[in-house]
Amino acid sequence: MQREGLGFESPSVHDNVSMPNPRHIALIPDGNRRWAKERGLPGFAGHQAGAKATEAIFASALDLKIPFVTFWGCSISNLTNRDPKEVSFLISLFAKYFRELTASDQVNKNKIHITALGRWRDYFTADAIEATEQMIEKTKDYDGLHLTFLLGYSGTEEMTQAVQALIKKSPIIVSEEAIKNELYTRDLPPVDLVIRTGGEPHLSAGFMMWDTADSQIYFTDTFWPAFSPEEFKKAIDTFSATERRHGR
Question: Which residues are catalytic?
Fold first, then answer.
């Protein structure tokens, strides 16, 4: 199936073949706080270390020429159910990191297109909203690596809003294309590989449920701050070596 404008073509459902490098990788970076706890450090130190790991993994994705990388920065529950001081620190960390990305020679030289999806405007401070919007605006016309942050994101809410939007249309048309066009991720191709760190082998909050229907999933016990470019490459190699049977 061809998704217009993205140049993405899925393999035939009848093909039992090993895959090349994934076109779209989605990352669930779990374990920042547990990494810090193991070392007798406060939780914010885990988030700081996690931000450094994020930089290294994105640099590796760029080197490996992965066209689409999606990073789940925080869920809605992360922003509403945790200690307010931790949430405040996390939001300020996003603001700092996004300013650095906006000014980054690596981003601008390689024309990295960066966007943020989710309800972040409902929960971020004015300063963090400004930093996020400036990053999006600065890179909106770039056509290199597509880097997407999911912020204040719930896949269950995303799908619910998509259905609500569809039933308000006249006539009501329900099709794969119509559903996709109502998702936050309407401009992204299907996810080929999901990587979740932190030792909990499950997805959460309906994570990208439409886009991960045929994804391969790589679970690792490694906490996100310790997740290295070497293990990232191992996950990709595992994907590439796996025969995709598509239910046959």
Answer: 30, 78
